[in-house]
């Protein structure tokens, strides 16, 4: 029996065991398998480990997407998560090349994936509070939000959680050094049902000058309580 003689359900099951690139390559072999590749039901889970993957046409975004993970583990991550004032011109140029890659992708997810249940971002140094705010607004069923080493995430994200994270049950902001203890306390107060984890966040050195830390804490607490 040839693979194309299998019914749609069997083909979808077989495709589900393949990674994104293998699915794409198999889909190129004939029209029937291309239709399976383009079936939204196949794309409920997406994992990315390189910025290049986000620019490829080896995946589909749609209402079927439930779980999304973007985790960088490379020297590029270390450079982009370094404070801007510490970077030399070469490093700044290196980061600029893909500064909007993840942010633009997440905005696309906001518009096309309203049923997203979990999002994990690790090492995404250019992701901003605005991106997370839009996700929380456009994906009302989001239950798990895990952020690790996302240096541009601040208390603005924590406030967005208190305002728009009604379905959220898990929130991780590990190694997000610009999150303050005041912000974490407000989340615990206003969202007691959320399992909050912030390993090495509020105690890390923020991008702002150390002498401004206390002022930042006080301003954050006042702003978050508005």
UniProtKB/TrEMBL annotation:
<dbReference type="InterPro" id="IPR036047">
    <property type="entry name" value="F-box-like_dom_sf"/>
</dbReference>
<protein>
    <submittedName>
        <fullName>FXL22 protein</fullName>
    </submittedName>
</protein>
<dbReference type="GO" id="GO:0031146">
    <property type="term" value="P:SCF-dependent proteasomal ubiquitin-dependent protein catabolic process"/>
</dbReference>
<dbReference type="InterPro" id="IPR006553">
    <property type="entry name" value="Leu-rich_rpt_Cys-con_subtyp"/>
</dbReference>
<dbReference type="InterPro" id="IPR032675">
    <property type="entry name" value="LRR_dom_sf"/>
</dbReference>
<dbReference type="GO" id="GO:0019005">
    <property type="term" value="C:SCF ubiquitin ligase complex"/>
</dbReference>
<keyword id="KW-0833">Ubl conjugation pathway</keyword>
